[in-house]
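User: Reviewer 2 asked us to show a designed sequence for the structure in our supplementary figure. I'm pasting the structure tokens here. Could you produce the per-position amino acids so we can include them in the response letter?
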């Protein structure tokens, strides 16, 4: 009886302790024993269709702060929601690390941390090497050549059934092939069963995880109780698919090293004997598989909703280029309205509503609050890209906000690829894909709603990458422009 009473008292003390917030921690919702703020986050998220970025925005308004303090499971989490505070985080070496939770460990497949999850000297060395390989050894001209090769394939698929085109469905494999051809020097057939499985797993991966790595990172013990529900089974399946897929190509490069030395990323690493190759490929492949295709999918969706903007983009193209004149990324200054439209798409649709997370390496101060060591820092890009103070009318899709004196002008708060040393590794490639594909398709086709159907919703699907809901459109050749 005494022992049982002591156990109850001890458990009670532990529960009370788990509800106590660190001294001077940022304001936020109440913490409950064992689960912290997770219950409230889940409840509020359901009310807004799973879009947790909306929940974070509401919390900032409720507590009248730019820094929200949470506890997800046993993990301390701080969310930053303004550009000025974000800069302080990115400029502070104490916030340079990535989270060290179960999800991150699982993501690295028990291998090296790659680039995304690396820190310190390892991060600096490998980022420098990959950027050098992509920009000099492979080259920007080679990037554009591969983009145009895939674009012609996309155009052929559009022409097969122009009255009912699901652009996102045909564009994602193209983006994957562009990335893969730069990594491995070869193209994957769209009909390859392994490739189709890989695309399906990437789609499911994007949808299954919520903010900060999801339920699995906050309650890792649930993998023993409900592995399917928390996504553990899916991650393991994805890991094995990716590992087998990449390993086969890496082995082929090793076996044929003396026979053929192609200008691709894998041969660069084989020659340098880098042991992080598998995770480097994972970073580049998974990181870029959805994002560029999603932005383009949103871009054409918005052209359905805003035919006035579509006509301005096409007029900009018609004035700048002859009907069959080749376009290069270096020509973008000739079409400022098109570039402004793409920039506004990335702001308005925020494909990554929550940016890459960080971890406090030591007890640190931020905006007058104390951030304990190992706290995870989330970047609320949704709030940053929808700030009324910064944008005036963020609820409106208005490319003109990026036009000054008839020229495109970037805005400081516009950070689709991040800022600082952890700026997106694939930015050089992504910008070329977005510009060249959007420009060429808009030049060739008039994108129209499907006949007899209402306009598709602009509301994104919830997930790490905010994908558009599937929709169909008509891609009508512009007559006589391309006849």
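Assistant: Here is a per-position design you can include in the supplement:
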């Amino acid at each position: 009886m005494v022992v049982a009473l002591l156990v109850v008292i001890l458990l009670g003390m532990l529960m009370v302790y788990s509800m106590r917030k660190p001294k001077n921690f940022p304001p936020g919702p109440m913490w409950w024993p064992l689960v912290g703020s997770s219950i409230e986050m889940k409840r509020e998220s359901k009310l807004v269709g799973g879009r947790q970025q909306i929940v974070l925005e509401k919390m900032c308004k409720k507590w009248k702060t730019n820094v929200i303090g949470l506890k997800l499971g046993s993990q301390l989490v701080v969310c930053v929601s303004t550009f000025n505070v974000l800069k302080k985080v990115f400029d502070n070496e104490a916030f340079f690390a990535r989270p060290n939770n179960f999800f991150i460990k699982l993501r690295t497949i028990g291998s090296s941390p790659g680039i995304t999850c690396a820190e310190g000297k390892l991060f600096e060395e490998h980022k420098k090497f990959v950027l050098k390989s992509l920009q000099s050894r492979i080259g920007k001209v080679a990037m554009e050549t591969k983009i145009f090769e895939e674009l012609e394939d996309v155009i052929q698929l559009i022409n097969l059934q122009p009255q009912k085109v699901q652009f996102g469905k045909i564009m994602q494999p193209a983006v994957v092939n562009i990335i893969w051809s730069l990594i491995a020097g070869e193209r994957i057939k769209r009909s390859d069963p392994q490739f189709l499985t890989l695309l399906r797993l990437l789609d499911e991966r994007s949808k299954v995880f919520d903010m900060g790595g999801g339920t699995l990172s906050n309650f890792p013990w649930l993998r023993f109780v409900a592995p399917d529900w928390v996504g553990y089974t899916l991650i393991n399946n994805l890991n094995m698919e990716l590992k087998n897929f990449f390993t086969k190509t890496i082995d082929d490069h090793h076996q044929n090293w003396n026979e053929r030395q192609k200008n691709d990323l894998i041969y660069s690493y084989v020659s340098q004997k880098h042991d992080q190759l598998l995770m480097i490929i994972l970073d580049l492949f998974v990181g870029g598989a959805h994002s560029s295709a999603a932005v383009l999918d949103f871009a054409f969706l918005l052209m359905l909703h805003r035919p006035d903007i579509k006509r301005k983009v096409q007029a900009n193209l018609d004035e700048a280029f002859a009907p069959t004149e080749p376009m290069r990324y270096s020509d973008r200054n000739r079409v400022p309205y098109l570039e402004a439209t793409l920039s506004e798409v990335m702001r308005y649709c925020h494909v990554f509503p929550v940016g890459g997370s960080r971890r406090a390496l030591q007890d640190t101060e931020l905006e007058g609050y104390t951030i304990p060591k190992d706290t995870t820092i989330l970047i609320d890009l949704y709030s940053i890209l929808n700030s009324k103070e910064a944008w005036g009318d963020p609820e409106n899709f208005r490319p003109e906000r990026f036009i000054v004196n008839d020229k495109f002008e970037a805005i400081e708060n516009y950070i689709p690829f991040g800022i600082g040393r952890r700026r997106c590794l694939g930015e050089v490639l992504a910008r070329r894909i977005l510009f060249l594909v959007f420009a060429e398709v808009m030049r060739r086709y008039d994108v129209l709603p499907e006949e007899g159907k209402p306009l598709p919703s602009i509301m994104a699907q919830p997930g790490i990458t905010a994908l558009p809901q599937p929709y169909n459109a008509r891609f009508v050749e512009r007559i006589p422009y391309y006849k």
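For the response letter, you might also mention the following. The first helix runs from residue 2 to 18. The chain has a mean pLDDT of 83.
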